[in-house]
Amino acid sequence: MDYPLFTKLAAEFFGTAILMIFGNGSVANVELKNTKGHHAGWLNIAMGYGFGVMFPVLMFGGVSGAHINPAMTLAQAINGLFPWSEVLPYIVAQLLGALLGQFIVYLTYYPHYKETEDAEAILGTFCTTDAHNDKVNYFLNEMFGTLVLVFGALCCLSLPWGKGDLAASSIVVGFIVWGLVTSMGGPTGPGLNPARDLMPRVLHAILPIPAKGSSRWGEAWIPVVAPIVGAIVGAWMFVFFFA
């Protein structure tokens, strides 16, 4: 069924919001002071992001394709898999959805933001940072991580077995994200999605959080540009070898 553009945009908006609630919500649960899940560990975060992608793809994959990621939208358009006329509306919906999802995380964890004194922990609940303070490594990690994500997602959702069972392929895409966070997430987080990093970073800059520290805008271009580059290459690989 071909849905109207408004319905597709609603799916992208709510899908990206859900991604943020599950993903950055899991980080807030682990990193912020006095939560029930404080110090629960990296697997808790990986699970949050895996489910944060899995559920929107299950819910909205048949409506909008559940890109929930500007890098995925741009990569598909550049490689002839998505109409250019819908690229800008999709990206706007994704950015606004990320903004809403992150604001919900902030509201639900508000008392814990006030109690947390570690600026790095607070920033990590909003956006990515490089653990080694190395911008080259930051770029490479985000680029290759997104390449694997987009290549894997397109293979799962677009090859005959995935088209024949969208629920199964959606679950596998969630496991791809879960696996990527556990395997390649150490250096940066990871973001793998410009909307997931940029809009929460904007909120970090403007929200009144006592010990939040710097929003690190000097490196904010990396988790925007690197995922787009990786996504374009990943989508090209899918088209060249399998489409």
UniProtKB/TrEMBL annotation:
Which UniProt keyword terms apply here?
Answer: Membrane, Transmembrane, Transmembrane helix, Transport
The record's Gene3D superfamilies line, in alphabetical order, gives: Glycerol uptake facilitator protein (1.20.1080.10)
Q: Which SUPFAM superfamilies match?
A: Aquaporin-like (SSF81338)
Write out the GO cellular component annotations. Answer: plasma membrane
Among Pfam families, the record links this protein to:
MIP
User: Where does it live in the cell?
Assistant: Membrane
Q: Say yes or no: keyword Lipid metabolism present.
A: no
Main location group? membrane
User: What is the membrane topology listed in the Swiss-Prot or TrEMBL record?
Assistant: Multi-pass membrane protein
Return one GO MF term: glycerol channel activity
Transmembrane feature ranges: 9-30, 42-66, 87-109, 138-159, 166-186, 220-242
- Family of this protein: Belongs to the MIP/aquaporin (TC 1.A.8) family.
Q: What protein am I looking at?
A: Aquaporin family protein
Protein source organism: Bifidobacterium jacchi
